[in-house]
Amino acid sequence: MSFSEKMFELAGAMNKSLVLPEGTEPRTLRAARIVADRHIAKMVYLVGAPDKIKRAADEVDVSLDGLHIVDPAASKWLDAYAEAYHSMRRHKGLSLEEARIKITDPVSWGAMMVHRGDAEAMVAGAASATAKVLVAGFTIIKTAPGVKSASSCFVMDFPDKHWGKDGMMIFSDCATIPEPTAEQLSEITIASAASCRTYLQTDPIVAMLSFSTKGSASHPLIEKVLEALKMVKQKEPNLIVDGELQLDAAIVPAVGLKKAPRSPVAGKANTLIFPDLQAGNIGYKIAQQFSKAGAYGPFLQGFNKPISDLSRGASVDDIVNTCAVTLTQVKSG
Predict the structure, then answer these.
(1) Which of 74, 125, 205, 244 could form a disulfide with 309 if both were Cys (CB 3.0 to 4.6 A apart)?
(2) Rounded to 10 degrees, what is the CA torsion of 268, 273, 202, 169?
(3) What span, in angstroms and rounded, lies between the C-alpha atoms of 299 and 306?
(4) What gap in Å lies between CA 117 and CA 247, rounded to an integer?
(5) Quick one: which of 41, 46, 42, 53 has its CA closest to 20?
(6) Beta pairing class for 307-309 and 168-172
(7) What is the sign of the dihedral through the CA atoms of 318, 322, 323 and 325?
């Protein structure tokens, strides 16, 4: 069973609701139809003016049967949402009337639906900049307790199935924080370990990557990785994590045994933490292009509730996959 199929099955069994704020976007409409038809979500909300959504759906021959359209301007939730948003932003000088206008923005509206429990997960970004999705996440949904910085991860599915867990690995952070501090790197590591448990359904074995293995080089960039590792071990003493490790030492058993013989991670890692965004973004693209690995994501991590950001170049399949994975993040209860 492919990673996508596993996520479809898991999300469907959880029976949760999903909001898609970009209700007139053609790929989003096609994806919404698939999510509903395959019972990946128990309920799919599309945000926007009903006449515009119906017109857009007709143009791409998508039936709206069983999909739920939410028009912010006419919604029964508008007063409550405006008041909630005003309470979040009045310290910035935002008036109630301004809050009423701003909350009708589809991405902000979708985030508020998730925040208030009217939907359980949100996927956006096919027609919106990443910054817009992240701002809605930070201002409305907010980060989880004890987390200062949200980050992202990719699930990499390699044709060579001896890597990671049956060919699947977590790569992080490849899309969100350009130059993380040691504290942010520690938060990325802990969040990515949780993502490994959710997506790969296995215990994380986490490698904090660098251009050095166990003191083979000396540089302030390596010191940052080591400082982050110390923070991780203080916060999550039972997590199997080690650093600093070069990529080959992290994933190739023979190299790991030679370069870091006492490491609990070397040669066995299923979760890779890159030292910065340049390394992470380049790393996942190299794996994707040279080894033809499937790259699923980026999936946001560290927020109070599940939201995901899409690439504006996302295909319909990409959107469906992201919906399924995002729904698996919904907490029980």
Answers:
(1) 125
(2) -80
(3) 9
(4) 41
(5) 46
(6) unpaired
(7) positive
What are the structural domains, with CATH classification, of the chain? 3-142+303-327 (3.40.50.10950), 151-295 (3.40.50.10750)
Rounded Cα–Cα distance for residues 283 and 291 (Å)? 12
pLDDT band for position 59 (50/70/90)?
very high
- Say what angle helices 316-327 and 3-14 make with each other, to 10 degrees: 50
Tens digit of pLDDT for each residue in 12-43? 999 999 999 999 999 999 999 999 999 999 99
What token pair was written down for 12? Answer: 């469907």
pLDDT for residue 333 = 55
Q: How far apart are CA 144 and CA 150, in angstroms?
A: 9
Render 255-290 in DSSP notation, one character per residue: HHHHH-TT-SSTTT-SEEE-SSHHHHHHHHHHHHHH
Residue 123: band (very low, low, confident or very high) from pLDDT cuts 50, 70, 90:
very high
pTM of the full structure? 0.88
List CB contacts of 76: < 8 A, sequence separation 6 or more.
none
Using CA atoms, how far apart are residues 227 and 67, in angstroms rounded to an integer? 49
What's the DSSP call for residue 143?
B
